[in-house]
Give the backbone structure.
Amino acid sequence: MGIDADRLWNDIEALSRITEPDRPWTRRSFTPRFLEGRAYLERAFRAAGLATRIDAGGNLIGRREGTERAASPILIGSHSDTVPSGGRYDGVLGVTAALETARAFAEAGVALRHPLEVCDFLAEEPSEFGLSCVGSRALAGELTPDMLAMTRPDGMTLREGLRYVGGDPDALAAAARGENSIAAFVEVHIEQGRVLESEGIALAAVTDIVGIARWRVTVGGRADHAGATPMAYRSDALVGAAALIRRAWEMANAAAGDARPLVATFGQIAITPNAANAVPGEAALTLEARCGDEARMAGFCDALLAACADELAALRVSARAEKISHAAPTPCAAEARAAIHAAAGDLGLSIRDLPSGAGHDAVWISRLGPVGMIFTPCREGRSHAPEESMTRQEAYDGARALARTVRRLDAALA
Ligand code: GLV
Ligand code: MN
Ligand code: MN
């Protein structure tokens, strides 16, 4: 269907060059580098004949009209922001595959019944404000005033951050789209696991996306002189944090064999005063729990604090937790999954079903209509790391499966 593998790969490479030079591959949301990536994409969207805009939630959207005026749009895309030092293909593949799909349709004069919207969602990865999926939450009407008040370390609020990327925090209500406002959403993404590569399978249709809950955990102790304070008099917040980290590891490992395993990660930590000669007085950590079972995921932090209560008391430290975010486990829609399987069949590509252990914008977009995701292989399952890698052929297969899926959905959906 006219998907050009070289043109697609060229976009992926061009975006990867837009990185913090001393820290490849880094293009964090709400930074000048992110805006540079956005400018590249906006130019490419326009060249593909798409009408572009940044919506109030900071999403870059390129639209091409369909032949049926009343039809809701088919949405395709992903995110162009990255985690620190990773994400050369995570998100970028889905945005560039969607762009290439629109470009191929325009070149071939393909007339779709539905409008097609290519979207680069704002800040899918956890931003410096502590929140992920900012743009897709906005589309779902779930970007709350509390979230807009979240601050990043330099003091900027998310409200200000939205304006920085061209969004409008005062017009979020208008940007939110309701139930049944899209015909479907399809996202191509690297698997971020090793199943497809190890089984030699070209594609996966995602069955469901794991739930993710995050908390800010604060361990309180007392800052003291590291030389003059005897061990018996210390309240070392970092030692308390270490106890929590170890116990979370043990609790999640104990559930590793479950049908719906829970994984837990303390991925961020900041201590004060953070000096070689001071006993840490406070440790601020981010805890994340992921699970297909929403109740277990939601209860994990309380269970952890309860399990550690005696140990923390013996260490003379306190611990409190505050929920940052909660995304429920999300099934992909049967009609989208069927279209993805049929598209792979059309192309003679092998395909299997797979659950997603990573979070995606599709979780929030599922409030708007049916969602589907196409996974491609990546090397050794590495992701959120500089080693993340895939081949031109894998990117090409993902993009042509997307284009086929859109054609099938366009024909099948109301
Ligand atoms: C998204 O990248 C996630 O954290 O799963
Ligand atoms: Mn990611
Ligand atoms: Mn991603």
Summary: The first strand starts at residue 51 and ends at 54.
